[in-house]
Hints:
Layout: E1 6-7, H1 9-27, H2 33-38, H3 45-59, H4 66-91, H5 101-108, H6 129-145, H7 154-167, H8 169-173, H9 177-181, H10 187-201, H11 209-225, H12 231-246, H13 254-261, H14 263-283, H15 290-319, E2 327-328
Parallel strand pairs: 1-2
Helix pairs in contact: 1-3, 1-12, 1-13, 1-14, 1-15, 3-10, 3-12, 4-6, 4-15, 7-10, 10-12, 11-12, 14-15
Amino acid sequence: xxxxxxxxxxxxxxxxxxxxxxxxxxxxxxxxxxxxxxxxxxxxxxxxxxxxxxxxxxxxxxxxxxxxxxxxxxxxxxxxxxxxxxxxxxxxxxxxxxxxxxxxxxxxxxxxxxxxxxxxxxxxxxxxxxxxxxxxxxxxxxxxxxxxxxxxxxxxxxxxxxxxxxxxxxxxxxxxxxxxxxxxxxxxxxxxxxxxxxxxxxxxxxxxxxxxxxxxxxxxxxxxxxxxxxxxxxxxxxxxxxxxxxxxxxxxxxxxxxxxxxxxxxxxxxxxxxxxxxxxxxxxxxxxxxxxxxxxxxxxxxxxxxxxxxxxxxxxxxxxxxxxxxxxxxxxxxxxxxxxxxxxxxxxx
Length: 349
């Protein structure tokens, strides 16, 4: 699809909102009962990220080959993740929570492994990296469908593959948690995002603005207020935003857009930022009250913005290659923002 490059503002906003949801979800481990109740469902930010990831992968790969697609994704997400993983590994030597070399190797190579502390969940050195393990898996499957004989049928092929894989989840879970990690129901969110992307590219993703806005409200409410399977409201939310994009009814909010730009950095750094903040906060003998929660949120967001401004953006400028023209977000994919829970439970939860 040719033409002038246009940033999809609504996708950037979704990334910002999802990243803030993840931060708030992890913040509730320190917060009071009100915050815990309010953010109990905010782990669903990961579902927004996965649907967005499938959408972006589809619309930005129209001219990509399997090799160029994988090379672009690796260049985009690996350098910052490796840098922060190595920094975390080194910093851990100053504490009682040191990591074994094999943990470092597996984390750097996106090989899932169970938390060494026995929680039974996939937990790399940087905990949110579990979602990047799933993203890499999705990239490999998607890259295969970019081969010339298959690319025309990428959406239906992966739809069938994911349904079959999910059907095997329970049986495989009894034998291997790691194998079941790749079969978890959330993988269908990647495919749903691809389907939305296909409809968008073929100008079939349209609805009356009022209906699209209602889909956004219902989808977001379903994610944060009810114990529903997250896949359905996440898909509804993204579909509503994309429909508003198609109707050119998405307003321009620079601050929210910039938070979307920094969402990958925020996602990767917020856990450490919260830990450091609360160590300092307690050292000052301050209570973990509402003021502390607001200050902790501000610290996590600030850490993400600083990482983006002084680390991620320079890395992208040096390493990222130009891509084919088409409708894009500022930096491309949603794997840069990733998520919060693990196969069955939230990171750290």
